[in-house]
Here is the input.
Amino acid sequence: MDLSTLSVAQLRDLQQQIPAEIKRRESQEKADILNELRALAKTRGYAIEDLLSKEPKTKLAGGNKVKVKYRHPENAELEWTGRGRKPKWVESWLANGGSVDNLLV
Here is the structure.
């Protein structure tokens, strides 16, 4: 399409038609892709909805939970594995002259 042959009015009209056409084509393309995916899933014995449903993640053998390394001596609910940033309660403990060794489990 040679845009240089169009008038300003024709260009503006075309400019207004483009977003609607893009939206229409995207919608059709998404529907086509979804139908292709449904067909593929069906050939493998699944429904696409079953493949897209949220399932609980399986844990690795042995789990991936890190053991607690530090615990507040007065409040057992305050725990820290020693990984990442120090929790505020640990920072507070150290600021008040406490030793991190006193928090070891």
User: Anything to note?
Assistant: The first strand starts at residue 70 and ends at 71. Residues 41 and 47 are 6 Å apart (CA to CA). Residues 8-43 form the longest helix (36 residues). DSSP finds three helices and two strands in the chain.
